[in-house]
Design brief:
The complex is a heterodimer. By secondary structure, chain A is an alpha+beta fold. In chain A, about 15% of the residues lie in helices and about 45% in strands. In chain A, strands 6-2-3-4-18-17-16-10-14 form a nine-stranded antiparallel beta sheet. Chain B is of the alpha+beta class. Chain B folds into three domains: about 150 residues, no CATH class; about 70 residues, no CATH class; about 150 residues, no CATH class. In chain B, the strands form two sheets. A six-stranded mixed beta sheet of chain B has the order 1-5-6-4-3-2. In chain B, strands 10-9-11-8-7-12 form a six-stranded mixed beta sheet, sandwiched between helices. The chains are: A alpha+beta, B alpha+beta.
């Protein structure tokens, strides 16, 4: 059983955030909220979405899981008016999920849960740097890097965070001193550098555009964890993205 | 695309003049055989068969020219020679059966046909007159048809080798044409032909899943016999070949993206007509890259090694693959078809190395059949990308660094780490 009412902007952003990596996902409900975990086909980026009970205007669910084509669900909801509440109801008998906004409603057939790729295991990694950056600034840095190359480099040391990209003819460099970051911590003696594909980071930046802050956890040639609160309380979406390395064939 | 075609026509004329001055014996161009001499020999062999009136059984095919579109030159292909059985007639216009033939044999096949022409408007396909309807219906036939044709003048022998469609045979403007035998239309095809509310994409895919191949579908699409009534039109043959390849591949891609990925590295190989293919299947989402390398002496090399790459990312591409044109689409479709049949998807890099043995373009069917043969061969299996690339490197003549530098997928595959490699 699942029935909930939520701000349309929150659910649209949440569904978009998952759909950039995966089409078919397993959506889990329990009395505390909903969560989804998925990885892209290339096993390069993992997404975790958590929406807590308090993030909904109304929430009633018992423990269960469904298979959902999240891209189609997002396509159905993306034209909802800004801030319009959306009601979500699981029609277990018909094996469908129903989305209602005002007097308009859509229903979507659920997928066979056994046919959906297993939820990925999160690698246990230790990332020595944590920086919190404004969502708009993050998007600005990514947009600037897109003009230069197809990758973005995150550097962090005792002075702060540096974001850069290098092309054949031009370079881009953005330095944010630690005093200007909302939060910054680095394990002593560490200076880290990791490079990531903009194919992924650009899509993720779109999800973070309207967020006040984006948490970045960075290591040295290690995956980056990017996290943001996308709902009014504790709900969040986070991405773990594997790095690119420079050596080629 | 039109600029490319103008350029290719210009180069053909330029090359012919250049070679003519050297009487075809010098081979200073670096080619193994002289294309001008070839043309001359072919001309001599069929000149006696050309006349103002031809009555004969012929393969059920038409040719639609692209010059001047939407005012187009269109007409059925008529056989100059007589054969004992239907199959021999059919092969004349059916590239799926041409695999294994030499360039000389191929040219002989094509010059056994006359390309009849009359000027018409592409839009008339939706409302054809008696003659156009006859032409449309003959393309649907699966057996040879008996045609009587009278031309304004004796057909002119102007062989033209096109990079996309098959070599174009002698042509003549038609004065009178009639279909003098029954045609045989399969029930599935008849259903699609008369269903004027079914769109082209669904119609083509329905027939493809019923076992009709790209060559047949290209003919009926080109003749404007498929799709919603008001949108039916004659489509120039060279555009139709690429369009059908792309339409079917796009439909197959919708299914392939839901398949599980392969878990090993596979390499398929084949060589035909101086075109060597090494096709690498890697684990991952469906992505496709076609890398063509024209070596000195081949059709489009102009003395240098020319390497081009066209890439289809996971999310699909929205632009025409202008660097490779029809060859890119002809290679992609059999690869997608293979994945659908095997129930597994992969990230694919197709290497095509073209040597000086390929000195006359014969059309993109050569790419399609070459790739199909490669995929029907038993693949070599490797456990890592490095091993598979070392093997491919040993099979290609051109320095592999050149391929590597241009490849989007190889650069990604060798620089992008995966999350599972960080599991402790």
């Amino acid at each position: 059983m699942f029935k909930a009412l939520i701000n349309g902007d929150v659910i649209k952003n949440a569904l978009m955030g998952v759909s950039i990596l995966s089409n078919d996902v397993k959506m889990n409900f329990n009395d505390e909220g909903i969560y989804i975990k998925a990885v892209d086909d290339a096993n390069v980026c993992m997404v975790s979405l958590n929406l807590k009970k308090d993030d909904f205007d109304y929430f009633d669910a018992s423990s269960s899981s469904i298979g959902l084509n999240i891209k189609t669900a997002y396509d159905l909801l993306k034209d909802a008016k800004k801030g319009e509440p959306i009601e979500i109801e699981l029609l277990e008998k018909d094996s469908k999920i129903k989305f209602s906004m005002g007097n308009l409603s859509y229903s979507l057939v659920l997928l066979n849960i056994d046919a959906i790729k297993k939820e990925p295991k999160t690698p246990k990694i230790d990332l020595p740097v944590e920086a919190v950056i404004n969502g708009e600034d993050f998007k600005k840095a990514v947009k600037a890097a897109e003009k230069i190359s197809d990758y973005i480099i995150f550097n962090a040391d005792n002075e702060g965070l540096k974001i850069s990209s290098k092309g054949n003819m031009r370079d881009m460099f953005l330095s944010i001193p630690k005093e200007e970051l909302m939060k910054y911590s680095i394990k002593e003696g560490n200076s880290v550098r990791s490079m990531f594909s903009l194919e992924y980071v650009s899509e993720i930046a779109k999800v973070f555009t309207n967020q006040e802050d984006v948490e970045l956890h960075i290591g040295n040639d290690f995956p980056i964890l990017m996290k943001s609160n996308i709902a009014k309380h504790e709900g969040f979406i986070e991405y773990l993205l594997a790095p690119r390395v420079e050596e080629g064939y | 695309m039109q600029n490319n075609l103008k350029l290719s026509r210009f180069l053909q004329i330029y090359n012919e003049r250049y070679y003519s001055e050297r009487k075809g014996i010098c081979l200073q161009c670096g080619r193994r055989k002289c294309p001008i001499l070839d043309k001359k020999l072919i001309s001599n062999s069929i000149t006696d068969l050309l006349s103002k009136e031809i009555h004969n059984f012929s393969p059920p095919g038409i040719f639609v020219g692209w010059v001047g579109y939407p005012k187009i030159r269109l007409g059925p292909m008529i056989s100059l020679k007589s054969y004992k059985n239907n199959k021999e007639f059919h092969v004349l216009d059916y590239p799926a059966e041409w695999y294994g033939l030499s360039l000389d044999n191929l040219i002989e096949y094509r010059t056994s046909l006359v390309r009849s022409e009359s000027i018409t408007h592409a839009d008339l396909a939706k409302n054809p007159d008696y003659n156009l309807k006859n032409i449309q219906e003959l393309t649907l036939s699966t057996i040879p048809v008996y045609m009587e044709a009278e031309f304004l003048k004796k057909p002119r022998l102007n062989l033209f080798f096109d990079p996309i469609s098959e070599p174009l045979p002698p042509s003549a403007t038609i004065k009178k044409f009639s279909l003098e035998s029954n045609i045989s239309i399969p029930a599935d095809v008849e259903k699609i032909y008369y269903d004027t509310d079914l769109n082209t994409v669904n119609g083509l895919y329905f027939l493809y899943t019923r076992g009709y191949d790209e060559y047949y579908l290209t003919k009926i699409f080109s003749a404007g016999t498929i799709g919603i009534r008001k949108k039916r039109r004659f489509v120039p043959t060279r555009w139709a070949i690429t369009a059908v390849d792309d339409i079917i591949a796009t439909k197959i891609k919708e299914e392939v993206r839901y398949l599980p990925s392969i878990d090993e590295f596979l390499v398929f190989s084949n060589t035909y007509l101086g075109n060597h293919f090494e096709i690498l299947f890697m684990p991952g989402p469906f992505e496709f890259e076609n890398i063509e390398c024209w070596m000195p002496g081949s059709v489009w090399s102009f003395g240098d090694i020319i390497i081009t790459s066209e890439y289809d990312p996971e999310k699909g591409r929205k632009t025409y693959a202008r660097l490779q044109g029809g060859g890119y689409y002809a290679a992609r479709l059999p690869i997608l078809d293979k994945m659908l049949n095997k129930g597994k998807k992969a990230r694919v890099v197709c290497f095509r190395e073209i040597s000086d043995e390929y000195y006359i373009p014969v059309g993109v069917w050569e790419v399609r059949e070459n790739v199909k043969r490669a995929l029907s061969n038993r693949p070599l299996k490797f456990s890592s990308l490095e091993e598979s690339l070392s093997y491919i490197k040993s099979k290609l003549k051109v320095d592999f660094e050149k391929y590597f530098r241009i490849s989007v997928i190889l650069r990604k595959a060798t620089t992008q780490k995966v999350l599972s490699s960080f599991d402790r």
